[in-house]
Write a structure and sequence with these properties.
397 residues, mainly beta, 5-stranded mixed sheet, 5-stranded antiparallel sheet, 5 helices, 24 strands
Length: 397
């Protein structure tokens, strides 16, 4: 409510009666595009819950500024606390030896701090291209970002609390509320195998790019596990549970964040037992400069650049094409990641043979030798994991 009051520029006397997630009519009836304070340039796909993505050309910074970091919420964020140091998170679960509750201040004091650049991407990024269409937000390419997160290792905290030998998974719970307003319902509660939770780069983070994490992105405490669907990086953390089985929280069961274990024809109805949980995200890249639709002068080099990432792996090679994929040219400038699970910057240049309409295509290859497909990858019922190569339009005159 504090955020809504700030947006409309006034307090809202009967705001407590306003249904959760509802945008004030002052904004809904306005010709001015909906915008969240602290965010800039995003394309809003949904307002209940709020979901917004970044057009490719605003992801050109080496690390994604907070204002350009995408928003993917499932419920309604909690009110912004004025006392983030006393925000608490409980570590418990049937496979936790010594359940403990920490304040953020205690986490900061008790455990060593780390900063890692970690890319996270919504599992449904690229969903809009699938046919038959899948339900859900119709993301194009911008539900991804990479910035430097600061916090403590999840591994250190879990080991301090004791991990029983039968532990196989962790799960999280946040303080966001279900869209229905029903306090007995959970908006989302996902998790990951212990092997992912115990990685060096899995963090309980309180800062992003040296500042507080934006409220809509999980302030004041967020789980961050790079390279996997962003849905495992729980926001507004209130509890982490160590489980002796695969976590069965909301959006871990049924077909959420799962794809068919074996390829299926488009439109196929797949039984729940034939769906597998998404883990590491596939290799992918974006052209972030220039913006699609640019006009270029014949005879001059066309310089362009972008970002690439590969889930748990590293991007080993970038290739570009100006003839609709008939031939590919290897990119010479591909930077190493700042650390494991960070995205990588690349630069390229080409010369066009004559005037006309061109498309510049880019594709990445990961350290296992897997390349991005140049057309849509396998259809799946929920429209996940579209990593088809990115392309921009260029008019050469």
């Amino acid at each position: 409510m504090a955020m809504m009051a700030a947006i409309v520029g006034s307090n809202i006397p009967f705001g407590s009666n306003m249904p959760s997630g509802l945008i004030p009519a002052a904004l809904a009836n306005s010709d001015v595009p909906f915008k969240i304070q602290g965010k800039d340039g995003l394309v809003y796909l949904n307002d209940r819950p709020v979901n917004a993505e970044a057009p490719p050309h605003i992801l050109d910074d080496e690390f994604t500024p907070a204002e350009h970091f995408f928003i993917r919420n499932n419920g309604v964020p909690p009110e912004k606390t004025n006392d983030p140091e006393n925000w608490t998170v409980e570590i418990s679960g049937e496979s936790c030896e010594n359940p403990t509750t920490f304040t953020v201040a205690q986490l900061k004091k008790k455990f060593k701090h780390y900063t890692y650049a970690l890319q996270i991407e919504c599992g449904g990024n690229g969903r809009s291209e699938y046919n038959p269409p899948a339900k859900g937000n119709q993301w194009s390419t911008g539900a991804v970002g990479c910035g430097r997160w600061t916090g403590v290792k999840l591994k250190d905290v879990l080991e301090y609390c004791g991990i029983k030998k039968d532990a196989v998974y962790i799960g999280y719970y946040g303080r966001d509320t279900h869209l229905s307003g029903d306090p007995s319902k959970v908006a989302i509660s996902r998790g990951a195998p212990m092997s992912k939770a115990l990685e060096e780069e899995s963090l309980l983070a309180w800062a992003y790019e040296g500042e507080d994490i934006p409220l809509v992105n999980g302030y004041p405490l967020r789980l961050v596990m790079g390279g996997w669907p962003a849905s495992v990086s729980g926001k507004w953390l209130k509890q982490i549970v160590i489980r002796n089985k695969v976590h069965d929280g909301t959006k871990m069961t049924g077909q959420s964040y799962k794809v068919p274990c074996n390829p299926v024809a488009p439109g196929t109805k797949v039984a729940d037992e034939d769906m597998c949980i998404i883990e590491s995200m596939p290799v992918k890249s974006l052209i972030t400069f220039p913006k699609s639709g640019v006009t270029h002068k014949l005879g001059e080099k066309f310089n362009f650049r972008g970002k690439a990432w590969a889930g748990d792996l590293k991007v080993e090679q970038m290739e570009v094409s100006i003839d609709f994929g008939a031939t590919w040219k290897k990119v010479k400038k591909l930077k190493d990641p700042l650390n494991r699970l960070a995205w990588q910057s690349w630069e390229a240049s080409v010369k066009f043979p004559k005037t006309g309409y061109y498309e510049v295509w880019a594709r990445a290859m990961d350290s296992a030798g897997i390349r991005q497909p140049i057309i849509l990858p396998g259809w799946n019922p929920r429209g996940y994991l579209n990593n088809a190569c990115h392309r921009i339009a260029v008019q050469v005159v």
